Automatic annotation (TrEMBL), chain A:
GO terms for cellular component: plasma membrane. Its main location: membrane. It comes from the Bacteria. GO terms for molecular function: ATP binding; ATP hydrolysis activity. It is found in: Cell membrane. Residues 1-20 are annotated as: Disordered. Residues 22-258, 268-512 form the ABC transporter domain. Keywords: ATP-binding, Cell membrane, Membrane, Nucleotide-binding, Repeat, Sugar transport, Translocase, Transport. This is Ribose import ATP-binding protein RbsA 1.
TrEMBL record, chain B:
One of its GO terms (cellular component) is plasma membrane. Keywords: Cell inner membrane, Cell membrane, Membrane, Transmembrane, Transmembrane helix, Transport. It comes from Planotetraspora kaengkrachanensis. InterPro entries: ABC_transp_permease (IPR001851). One of its GO terms (molecular function) is transmembrane transporter activity. It is found in: Cell membrane. The chain crosses the membrane at residues 21-39, 59-86, 98-121, 177-201, 222-241, 253-269, 276-296, 302-322. It is a multi-pass membrane protein. This is Autoinducer 2 import system permease protein LsrD. Its main location: membrane. The lineage of its organism: Bacteria, Bacillati, Actinomycetota, Actinomycetes, Streptosporangiales.
From TrEMBL, chain C:
It is found in: Cell membrane. PANTHER family: ABC TRANSPORTER PERMEASE PROTEIN YPHD-RELATED-RELATED, AUTOINDUCER 2 IMPORT SYSTEM PERMEASE PROTEIN LSRC. The gene is rhaP. Its main location: membrane. The lineage of its organism: Bacteria, Bacillati, Actinomycetota, Actinomycetes, Streptosporangiales. It comes from Planotetraspora kaengkrachanensis. The keyword Membrane applies. This is Autoinducer 2 import system permease protein LsrC. The keyword Cell membrane applies.
């Protein structure tokens, strides 16, 4: 450990004079009008774990995809051992010893774990046949090396995400990968699973592997990594040693502004209960979830990814079926599994995945906004285009949407403006209960503040807001109360006054209480 | 006919990025018509055109329902078999002494049941409609054979045969084509101007978003399959009367012509894109081409080659165009999609 | 430790589901044969059995080729028309050139089949067009070509070389050539798919095309190969068809694509790819053929045959789907229990 610490002194050139195993030099990458990476440089050295920090939309995923051969840089270079290389496809990067572990790995569900590891490179017996015995033995050996108990013969279908990641790491090991890139591997893992993963990764690092690690949990960065590179809005902000850095300093680099001004929740008088959820259960997903949201109140649902927050929202809105419990809106029970009924009861759900769930990307702004009000836009049997346009224009102005024409497809808009279209689509139904899942995921800072202002105003006007968010500052700034979920259960309710980063994270990770 | 196309196109469909494929087909239609008129003297007279249109009747009718399905990203391959089953039932029941007035509503109900079976398998079990309807394609055709065996029933009442064959008095338009025209207008309005149509496009383009917007996806798909079955069964009645012959193998392979017409008309096989005007142009194009080939004594077998080729061309050309455009432009403004919490 | 026990029982469930398929076909066959034989003893006569195997041979051969394609999550509807085209054209060539023997016939048939497969494969893998639409289109194109070449003519057995006909009727050690050829091809293909790295690629592609691309599997080349093999086996099937029936017209084997797809799916090859064996597919073909023969023996209206084929296909995909949903639900509950 001390050796590693020495090697990462702020101005030190990694381990000795060896060039970095993998490096980016002045890389830029744009998607249409969006500049995802601007002149970013990064060096990964053998035996060193390097963290990549930054908010959502800062360009971390684009950087990973550039290193792994999914994207090619518009300008700048990818270097291996100091020499420029070009990865045209993921297989090229793999051949050069770059392995990527995604948050949710892509596996072959119908093939065995051993085959998932060795696909295309199976051990051969005579005449080029697959040596199944050797394949099984080598997979078992890899798992033994990683210290995990997985059966090489079991099919990949049904493996937990943590196990899938371990299979991917075994695959990287089997390829003698020199660089291990981990894109938010811990997001969906339980505390024990994270600990197991870290043991494995630390061992690999000590064996000379270069690791690039992405996580939103700062504790993990400080525990695992020696260096950290921070990105903000696609630009390189800092590259430095972790030793000597404080949490606060790192957050400042990521956010680049004062947190308090961003989350202007106004105080509002809370009224009667608008949404009441009672012992709601969906087997294997969430269990026994009860809570209330009052008019004028913003209630945040916090927790780790995979804790079941979005799933509760989906069930309340009727997109998924629930197995037990009930949901009341303004004192009336909702029938299960009917978004239509939820909508007419006054519930709106702004879903977590804008591109798949929130919008029809190929269709125009006005059509997307009109989609939730097809009945109201009817004049006789046909839709009134004028009414459709008025409704869209009305909300576009109120939410300060930036657009050329209302007939433009939403896929030409920026992420923030797309989110405004989703908001318009749902606010135009005049809901009394607004469920909003990750309200500001992947949108720019300015729009973020606008969304927060809108939410705050809505609550002041008497709307009941249930907000799911993985961004702690947002939760702390916006919410009147914080509900915390952990592994499918509601484990804590924290009033605004007592909500701190520590109290919420502690409850979410299940370390105490 | 070209006027019809532009009328439906002015209902701005979300295809505008796509070189307006449906207009292209409309232009092609005019060119084929002009070429035919110049090239063969028998082509451009009222008698032949009326015959050509009448010959298209069933394909055109079924294509309307198929358009709705394909826009919603589903497909029904069993339509020709439903047509055959309907034809076999008409023949069998007529032979058994039933009245045509009873037979027609009955076979339409049978068609609805056929569609319902398709729809339930697709919506309740979540099976792909391609797989389901290829199974029912065999099943319904098999039932037609069970009903009628290798018999051929003829000699239907002249008054009904006349309805299927004759022109609307004072026009060169056969009754089935007139019916098609009326239904085409209704379908065009439904698809392009009603909430139901909006819902179809949303389902086809992004089914999850449609579900999240409170659209009853399963119910709507079920309705579409039932409509498709009803239309196919009714087309079976028209077919039987028009040819004056009920056989179990009536209309074999017709599904291909229908799908070719729909895809040729610019409806995206993946759903969410297309115009009814384009489909009408596609239907007419296929009809005129067949008619021209026939006038030039090209065998029916070669005609099916032409239909098959048209189908392949109509699915592959838009993909090639899309690939070419992507090459020219930077990749579409899609941000990397790995979810970041 | 919990991971391992969970894994073991998961594997148990999944294994059971798929082994159950082949077992249930064998069981269905046994019941069918027993009932039919009880009703009519002739069903189990040497001649009766020979007929069933002769009839099943070509269907099973096509099913083996089709499995390859379906395992990659694609489909080839053109096989029936390829059989028809090859049977007629090869018959035509042989009738015109009396000197040619059975070897030339087979090579010619396979070459024609490969050309058809090549066209399908190119359109599907490089055109990225839905396989069902492409092969529906080529089905009609090939059928039309067949008719155009035949022009209403008929090839007669008397015009064919004796060596070709004896391929259809002859036998070695009492086993007819046709089923023998099919079994050899089935074993070879089955062994390849199971025991060679490139064979496993087909399963990988069907199981998850995205993961296959990421893992560096040459997806396009393999899909291309699947269509080529399906075409080649359809070509071979065409020659066998000619050898067996001697008399062929342009309409031969039309509509067979449905039987082939049914056999494959009934045999446990998932229509969604990645799962199944050629042995299952061949068993499925045997089952369908036996049903047809049983219908004749039981004096059931033979017109039921197509309806039964369709119903079996629907039953197979529905059962697969219901089982998959069950397994998914069980896994969901189990994960939940381990999570908490």
């Amino acid at each position: 450990m001390t050796g590693a610490a020495e090697a990462t002194a702020p101005h030190g050139p990694g381990t000795g004079d060896a060039p970095p195993v993998l490096a980016l030099a002045g890389v830029s990458k744009s998607f249409g009008a969006v500049r995802a990476l601007r002149d970013v440089s990064l060096e990964l050295h053998a035996g060193e774990a390097h963290a990549l920090a930054g908010e959502n939309g800062a360009g971390k995923s684009t950087l990973v995809k550039t290193l792994s051969g999914v994207h090619r840089p518009d300008s700048g270079q990818v270097l291996m051992d100091g020499r420029p290389v070009e990865f045209h496809k993921p297989a090229d990067a793999q051949r050069h010893g770059v392995a990527v572990i995604y948050q949710e790995p892509t596996m072959f569900p119908d093939l065995s774990v051993a085959e998932n590891i060795f696909i295309g490179r199976q051990p051969r017996a005579s005449l080029g046949r697959i040596d199944r015995g050797a394949m099984r033995a080598r997979a078992a050996e890899l798992f033994a090396r990683l210290g995990v108990a997985l059966d090489p013969e079991q099919p990949a279908r049904g493996l937990s995400i943590a196990d899938q990641q371990l299979v991917e790491i075994a695959k990287a090991l089997s390829r003698d990968a020199r660089v291990l890139i981990m894109d938010e591997p811990t997001a969906a893992l339980s505390v024990n699973e994270v600990a197991r993963l870290f043991t494995v990764v630390k061992a690999l690092r000590e064996q000379g592997c270069a690791v690039l690690f992405i996580s939103h949990r700062l504790d993990e960065i400080f525990e695992l990594c020696q260096r950290v590179t921070t990105l903000r809005d696609g630009a390189w902000i800092a590259g430095e040693a972790v030793a000597g850095l404080t949490h606060e300093a790192l957050i400042r680099r990521m956010v680049g502004r004062d947190l308090d001004t961003l989350y202007p929740k106004l105080d509002a008088a809370t009224g009667e209960v608008a949404l009441k959820v009672h012992r709601l259960t969906r087997e294997g997903v969430f269990t026994d979830v009860s809570f209330e949201v009052r008019r004028g109140e913003i209630v945040a649902l916090a927790g780790l990814v995979g804790a079941g927050r979005s799933e509760v929202a989906r069930a309340v809105f009727g997109v998924d079926r629930w197995d037990a419990g009930w949901v009341e809106v303004n004192g009336r029970r909702l029938p299960p599994a009917s978004p239509t009924a939820a909508m007419s009861a006054g519930v709106a759900l702004v879903p977590e995945d804008r591109r798949q769930q929130g919008l029809v990307m190929d269709q125009s702004i006005e059509r997307n906004i009109g989609l939730t009000g097809l009945k109201r836009l009817r004049r006789g049997p046909v839709i009134s285009r004028a009414a459709e346009r008025d409704r869209a224009r009305d909300w576009a102005i109120r939410l300060q949407l930036k657009f050329n024409r209302l007939s433009d497809a939403v896929n030409v808009l920026s992420g923030g403006n797309q989110q405004k279209v989703v908001l318009a689509k749902w606010l135009s139904t005049r809901p009394q209960v607004l469920i909003i899942d990750e309200p500001t995921r992947g949108i720019d800072v300015g729009t973020k503040a606008e969304v927060h202002r809108v939410l705050s105003e809505l609550a002041s006007d008497g709307m009941a807001v249930l907000m799911i968010s993985s961004e702690l500052p947002e939760v702390l700034g916006m919410a009147d109360r914080v509900l915390v979920m952990q592994e499918g259960r509601l484990v804590a309710e924290i009033p605004r006054a007592e909500a701190t980063e520590e109290s919420v994270m502690t409850a979410a990770a299940g370390r105490t209480s | 006919m070209a006027a019809d196309v532009t009328a439906a196109n002015s209902a701005r469909a979300p295809l505008s990025r796509f070189l307006r494929w449906d207009i292209l087909v409309g232009v092609l239609l005019v060119l084929v018509f002009a070429g035919g008129a110049i090239g063969s003297p028998e082509f451009a007279n009222a008698g032949n055109l009326s015959f050509a249109l009448g010959d298209l009747g069933e394909i055109a009718l079924i294509a309307l329902a198929m358009t709705l399905l394909v826009v919603a990203a589903e497909v029904d391959l069993s339509v020709a078999s439903v047509l055959g089953l309907s034809s076999a039932l008409v023949g069998h029941l007529w032979d058994a002494g039933w009245a045509i007035e009873t037979i027609i509503p009955l076979v339409v109900v049978v068609g609805a049941v056929c569609g319902l079976v398709n729809g339930l398998l697709v919506t309740r079990l979540g099976l792909p409609s391609l797989a389901v309807t290829i199974g029912t394609l065999a099943l319904y055709r098999g039932l037609a054979q069970v009903v009628l065996g290798d018999r051929a029933i003829a000699e239907f009442p002249q008054s009904y045969v006349n309805l299927a064959v004759n022109n609307v008095p004072g026009t060169p338009i056969p009754y089935p084509v007139a019916l098609f025209a009326v239904l085409a207008v209704i379908t065009a309005v439904t698809l392009h101007a009603t909430g139901f149509g909006r819902a179809l496009f949303a389902i086809g383009a992004q089914v999850e978003a449609a579900h999240f917007a409170g659209i009853r996806v399963k119910r709507i798909k079920l309705i579409l399959f039932v409509v498709s079955g009803i239309v196919a069964a009714f087309a079976g009645v028209v077919y039987t009367l028009r040819y004056g012959s009920a056989r179990a193998d009536n209309g074999s392979g017709l599904e291909l012509a229908v799908i070719a017409a729909v895809l040729l008309g610019g409806v995206d096989f993946d759903g969410g894109k297309g115009t009814l005007g384009g489909v009408i142009a596609g239907v007419l194009l296929i009809g005129l081409l067949r008619n021209l080939l026939m006038l030039n004594d090209v065998s029916t077998e070669i005609q099916s080659v032409v239909t098959g080729l048209l189908l392949v061309i109509s699915v592959i050309t838009p993909r090639l165009v899309a690939v070419a455009r992507q090459r020219r432009r930077a990749p579409s403004p899609v941000m990397p999609t790995t979810p970041t919490p | 430790m919990t991971a391992v026990t969970a894994g073991r029982s998961t594997r148990g469930i999944v294994d059971l589901v798929f082994r159950a398929r082949e077992l249930s076909i064998v069981l269905a066959l046994a019941v069918l044969v027993a009932v039919t034989a009880a009703a009519n003893g002739n069903f189990l006569s040497a001649q009766g059995l020979k007929d069933i195997f002769l009839n099943a041979a070509i269907l099973a051969l096509l099913a083996v080729g089709q499995s390859f394609v379906v395992i990659t999550r694609n489909i080839d509807l053109s096989v029936g028309s390829v059989v028809g085209l090859v049977a007629f054209t090869v018959g035509d060539v042989l009738a015109a050139n009396q000197g040619l023997g059975v070897g030339v016939a087979i090579v010619l048939g396979i070459v024609i089949g490969c050309v058809c497969g090549l066209v399908n494969g190119l359109l599907v893998s490089f055109g990225k067009v839905p396989a069902l639409v492409v092969t529906l289109g080529t089905l009609y194109v090939i059928q039309g070509l067949d008719h155009a070449i035949a022009h209403g003519r008929q090839i007669n057995a008397v015009d064919l070389p004796r060596s070709v006909l004896s391929l259809g009727n002859g036998s070695v050690l009492g086993i007819p050539y046709l089923p023998l050829i099919t079994v050899v091809v089935m074993l070879a293909v089955g062994y390849y798919l199971r025991s060679y790295a490139s064979g496993r690629d087909f399963y990988a592609i069907g199981s998850s095309p995205e993961a296959a691309g990421l893992a560096g599997v040459p997806v396009r080349r393999r899909v291309m190969a699947a269509y080529l093999l399906s075409g080649a086996l359809a070509g071979l099937g065409g020659v066998l068809w000619l050898a067996r029936f001697g008399t062929v017209v342009a309409d031969d084997a039309h509509g067979w694509e449905l039987q082939v797809v049914s056999a494959v799916v009934v045999g446990g090859v998932a229509i969604t790819g990645g799962v199944g064996t050629v042995y299952g597919a061949a068993l499925g073909a045997l089952l369908l053929t036996t049903i047809t023969s049983a219908l004749v023996v039981l004096k059931v209206n033979p017109f039921w045959q197509q309806a039964i084929t369709g119903a079996l296909l629907l039953l197979a995909i529905s059962v697969d789907r219901v089982l998959a949903l069950r397994v998914a639900r069980i896994l969901r509950r189990r994960n939940a229990r381990h999570g908490s």
